[in-house]
Design brief:
Number of domains: 3
Number of strands: 11
Helix content: 40-55%
Radius of gyration: 37 Å
Oligomer: single chain
Number of helices: 10
Strand order of the largest sheet: 5-7-6
Structural class: alpha+beta
Strand content: 5-15%
C-alpha cells in the first residue's frame, strides 16, 4: 500500500509511463526493466482527497472485505461533517441527576429513574452531511458514544488498463458468470432466429444440422460413421441376456 501526497504520486506515474531515452541518467537500468502499462495515466484523475494505492494479486472480491472490515470507532468532533445520522435511543445514561439541566438545554425528553438520568424517547443528535456542533459533541462524549468510524473504502479498481467502478467490482464471481450466461443465451437465440452465424450460434447450428442429416439417413436407410457410433451407444448401460437353451427346449415341449 502506497500513501503519499497526490502531487508526488501523480508525478511518479507520469515518470513511470515515460519511455526510457538514451539521455536519461538511469537509461541502462530502465531499458531492461521498463514495461508499458496501458492506460495507467487514468489513475491520475482519480487521485483526489485522502487516497492510497494498493497493489495486490488477490482478486478484489477477496481483498475488499479484508480491507473494509478493518475499522476503528471514532468520537464526534466539533466542526466535522457527520457521515451518517446519529440517534440516541431511550434508556439510562449512567449520569447523576445534577446534570439534568444540560439535557434540558438540548430539549431532550428525560426523567430521573433509580438515581440516574434516563432518556425517554429517541433523540437525533447528528444529521448526515451537516457539521457536528459543540453541544452534540459534548453530549456524545458524556454518554461515551463513538458514533463514527475510521477505515478504508475501495473506490476504484484498475485492472488490465480498465477502471472498474463499485457497481462492477462489488459483484461476486457467480453473479458476473450468471450475467454473462444470460447474455450469451440471448445472443445465441437471436442469432439462430435471424440465421446469423457467430461464435455463439455456430455450435447450435452444427448440432441442429446433424440432427436433420441423421433423421434423413434413418428414414432412407443410409448410414455413416457418426450415425453408427450413435446407434451403437448403450442405452442406459443395460443389455438383455439371451435366453438359455434349456429354457427354449422347455418352451418347445410345452
Amino acid at each position: 500500500m502506497v500513501v503519499g501526497k497526490n502531487t508526488v504520486i501523480k508525478k511518479a506515474i507520469s515518470l513511470r509511463q515515460k519511455a526510457p531515452e538514451s539521455s536519461d541518467e538511469d537509461y541502462e537500468w530502465r531499458k531492461n526493466h521498463y514495461t508499458d502499462v496501458q492506460n495507467i495515466d487514468k489513475i491520475i484523475s482519480l487521485l483526489k482527497g485522502k487516497v492510497a494505492l494498493i497493489f495486490s494479486d488477490t482478486p478484489v472480491y477477496e481483498l475488499k472485505p479484508l480491507i473494509e472490515s478493518n475499522r476503528k470507532p471514532a468520537a464526534a468532533k466539533v466542526g466535522m461533517v457527520a457521515p451518517i445520522d446519529v440517534t440516541i435511543p431511550p434508556g439510562p445514561t449512567g449520569l447523576d441527576p445534577s446534570q439534568i439541566s444540560f439535557f434540558h438545554a438540548l430539549n431532550m425528553s428525560t426523567k430521573i429513574q433509580k438515581g440516574q438520568i434516563e432518556i425517554s424517547k429517541d433523540f437525533k443528535v447528528c444529521t448526515a452531511g451537516k457539521k457536528v456542533g459543540n453541544s452534540e459533541a459534548v453530549l456524545l462524549a458524556k454518554l461515551n458514544i463513538k458514533p463514527f468510524a475510521y477505515g478504508m473504502e475501495i473506490l476504484y479498481v484498475f485492472e488490465e488498463g480498465t477502471i472498474l467502478t463499485p457497481e462492477i467490482f462489488n459483484m461476486d464471481p457467480n453473479t458476473i458468470t450468471e450475467k454473462f450466461r444470460k447474455v450469451a443465451t440471448n445472443m445465441a437465440a437471436l442469432s439462430l432466429a435471424v440465421g446469423q452465424p457467430n461464435a455463439l450460434s455456430v455450435p447450435h447450428m452444427i448440432v441442429n444440422s446433424f440432427k436433420n442429416v441423421a433423421s434423413i439417413a434413418l428414414e432412407s436407410g443410409l448410414t455413416f460413421k457418426q450415425l453408427q457410433n450413435l446407434s451403437s451407444a448403450p442405452s442406459g448401460g443395460k443389455t438383455e441376456a439371451a435366453p438359455k437353451k434349456e429354457e427354449t427346449k422347455a418352451a418347445a415341449k410345452t
